Every structure is written in C-alpha cells, then in structure tokens.
C-alpha cells in the first residue's frame, strides 16, 4: 500500500525562487530515493516553515527516507522536525484527482 509522508520543520529560508535555485541539486537527488514516487515541496515564509509531501511505494521506504532526511536536516542545524506517515485511501483520493499514479 502506498504511503504519504508529511514532513515539516522550522525554516528561516531561503524561500521561493531563491530556495528553488539553491535546492536544485537536492531536488534531483530525491528522485533516486528507494520507493519514492513524487514530492511536493512546501514552504511558508510567514510561519517560517519548510517541508514536503512525499508519496512512497510502501512503509519501509517512507520510514527509511524519514530517518535519513531527519538526520540530514539535523546536520543543517534544523530541529523540531515532524514526520508523519499516512495510509492513502486511493479510492477516495482518485475522486479528487490525486496524483497517485496507479
């Protein structure tokens, strides 16, 4: 069963186009993570938050990525990392055009 990973953390920037320019290499590398289907990058400059939504093939892939990603963020000086793994209700999500790639 596919798993959705939601990650967020306190983040002081950069945001927007500057973030996109600085994170290009990281974004490309994420495509090679085992079991990863897609990622949506999230940011909120007003609330000083960064994060993402990820769709993984299975729970072990999502767990492994969360562990690795949390360690990477901590090395960058980021704390208060929250990662939650959800089951995906495919039937209902497809009604609402979710990009699940089934």
TrEMBL record:
It holds the Pfam family ydhR. InterPro entries: Dimeric_a/b-barrel, YdhR. This is Putative mono-oxygenase ydhR.
């Amino acid at each position: 069963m596919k798993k959705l990973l939601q990650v967020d953390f306190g983040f002081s920037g950069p945001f927007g186009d500057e973030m996109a320019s600085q994170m290009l290499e990281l974004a490309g590398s994420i495509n090679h993570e085992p079991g990863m289907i897609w990622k949506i990058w999230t940011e909120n400059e007003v609330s000083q938050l960064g994060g993402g939504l990820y769709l993984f093939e299975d729970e072990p892939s999502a767990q492994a990525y969360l562990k690795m990603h949390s360690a990477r963020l901590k090395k960058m000086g980021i704390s208060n990392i929250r990662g939650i793994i959800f089951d995906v209700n495919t039937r209902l999500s497809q009604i609402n055009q979710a990009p699940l790639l089934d």
